[in-house]
Automatic annotation (TrEMBL):
<keyword id="KW-0768">Sushi</keyword>
<keyword id="KW-1015">Disulfide bond</keyword>
<feature type="domain" description="Sushi">
    <location>
        <begin position="10"/>
        <end position="73"/>
    </location>
</feature>
<feature type="region of interest" description="Disordered">
    <location>
        <begin position="1"/>
        <end position="23"/>
    </location>
</feature>
<protein>
    <submittedName>
        <fullName>Sushi domain-containing protein</fullName>
    </submittedName>
</protein>
<dbReference type="InterPro" id="IPR035976">
    <property type="entry name" value="Sushi/SCR/CCP_sf"/>
</dbReference>
<dbReference type="InterPro" id="IPR000436">
    <property type="entry name" value="Sushi_SCR_CCP_dom"/>
</dbReference>
<dbReference type="Pfam" id="PF00084">
    <property type="entry name" value="Sushi"/>
</dbReference>
Amino acid sequence: MCPAAGETYEDCEQPPEVAHGSARLTVDEREEYVTAHYTCKSGYRLQEPQLAELRCSIETDEWDATKLPVCVPDVSY
């Protein structure tokens, strides 16, 4: 279930889901943020590679996700 525009994604243990992609979570050294590192499944690529990482504040338990990464078919595949 995706929140509507303007809603927040909550729970740092559950990154926002991306179709045809997956996320690997890491925590920064000071344990202030969780970062989701997104990759696309075989045959897909990130439409905007700069959106491959999203951060979640452990203090507020909210993802800083104004725009989610998108996996699109890789035509060169």
